[in-house]
Amino acid sequence: MATDASTGTGLVFDPMAQFMVKPLFGGDVVNWYTPTNVTLWMVIAVLGISAMLVMGTSRRAVIPTRSQSIGELAYGFVYKMVEDVTGKDGLKYFPYIMTLFMFVLFSNFLGLLPMAFTTTSHIAVTGVLAMAVFLAVTILGFVKNGPAFLGMFWVTSAPLALRPILALIEVISYFVRPVSHSIRLAGNMTAGHAVVKVFAAFAGLVALSPLAILGVVAMYGLEILVCFIQAYVFTILTCVYLKDALHPHH
Amino acid sequence: MEGDIAEMGKFIGAGISALGMGLAALGVGNVAGNFLAGALRNPSAAAGQTATLFIGIAFAEALGIFSFLVALLLMFAV
Fold this sequence. Notes:
The complex is a heterodimer of chains A (about 250) and B (about 80).
Chain A: H1 37-57, H2 66-86, H3 94-110, H4 123-145, H5 163-202, H6 209-246
Helix pairs in contact in A: 1-2, 1-3, 2-3, 2-6, 3-6, 4-5, 4-6, 5-6
Chain B: H1 5-17, H2 19-41, H3 43-46, H4 50-77
């Protein structure tokens, strides 16, 4: 997505340079097996989740320690979300949704560290997550309901003359789901982190530097909020799609 | 005045696509404002609808993000 800074003429910095995929151990060629900064930060995210959830809850104290109560809070939060949106029969799929939520949340938050890489800012990463949800939900819908799953596109509450047009719109919106699902997350992460970088670059101009520092602090605070909300939205949309697969009739 | 017309069009197009940001702001503000108006009339029902609020905001915001994507594509990919 990012190119070299030489294409810009006005400002000397490049806010998109932070999203460059680079091999960890030198060289320029990226093959499928090359360890890059994307791999590094994904591994850090997985290790962080494991450390928080496994080590935090290993003692199972009656009076929880700080890490145990954070783990319990996260578990309860996602559990309640799945139960509220999908219903009791959606709880079978809770482990997958919990995994998605924790991975997206940790990737978003780790990207806020200085010099860090935001893995969820790449459509290649979020696209795979969204396609996995889309395929799983579609296959699940056909396995659970058989051909009746197609009834989701035939809106029986609408007048008969309108139904073919509505069916067309419903089919299109169904297939656009993985696109908007992935671009929403990647776009939010890219935009937010680039804005922080743009404000940081203004610090080079002496007259603007107090404004730049205030701007960075304010945008960073907003980004902490956005990182959480986007992980929440990604998860809750997964729950909504799952609900559509389990109960296809509106 | 250097560079060709296509280069100029790229920057103008990226600037125009920034208008989508303001329009997405209208949409998100509409969702949140109507939620607040409803929630103040019936506060007991508000807590159960926060998930719907966030889904509505996410859908409205996604289209603003698409305009950002158009600007990015114009700047870096075209």
